[in-house]
């Protein structure tokens, strides 16, 4: 079972919806930024944009990494109050293609359907 976290920009709320591995199989090959139909999550009439996610082992998806698996990248960041510049660290990320090892998908609603979200048996979370 995987989890979809659906963000509603109108109300500022997020909704959690579990979906089966069959649905995840039909989403395999899609990329971050693509728009999908809400029928995958029992929400007909809705359109959603994939904005992120994470794998079962906890590695986050990265939009600029065009692979399905994991990759270790050397990233530069600033750390601390005095911001030491030039600190680089090797961090593992997951690519932007959805595969069978996804545990969570983050989605944003782009088009609303006929039924309100509260009626679609989703559990409400706080943002």
TrEMBL record:
Single GO MF annotation: structural constituent of ribosome
Pfam families: Ribosomal_S6e
Stored SMART domains: Ribosomal_S6e
Coiled coil: none
TM region positions: none
Keywords noted in UniProt: Ribonucleoprotein, Ribosomal protein
A biological-process GO annotation: translation
Domain of life the protein comes from: Archaea
Keyword Cell cycle: no
One Gene Ontology CC term in the entry: ribosome
Family: Belongs to the eukaryotic ribosomal protein eS6 family.
NCBIfam families: PRK04290.1-3
Entry-linked HAMAP family: Ribosomal_eS6
Protein name (record): Small ribosomal subunit protein eS6
Lineage: Archaea, Methanobacteriati, Thermoplasmatota, Thermoplasmata, Thermoplasmatales
Gene this chain is encoded by: rps6e
């Amino acid at each position: 079972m995987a989890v979809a976290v659906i963000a509603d920009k109108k109300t500022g709320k997020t909704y959690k919806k579990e979906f089966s591995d069959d649905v995840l199989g039909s989403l395999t090959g899609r990329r971050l930024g693509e728009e999908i139909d809400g029928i995958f999550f029992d929400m007909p009439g809705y359109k959603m944009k994939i904005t992120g996610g994470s794998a079962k082992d906890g590695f986050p998806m990265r939009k600029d990494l065009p692979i399905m698996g994991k990759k270790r990248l050397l990233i530069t960041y600033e750390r601390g109050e005095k911001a030491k510049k030039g600190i680089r660290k090797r961090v593992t990320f997951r690519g932007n293609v959805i595969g069978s090892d996804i545990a969570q998908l983050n989605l944003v609603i782009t088009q609303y359907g006929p039924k309100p979200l509260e009626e679609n048996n989703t559990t409400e979370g706080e943002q």
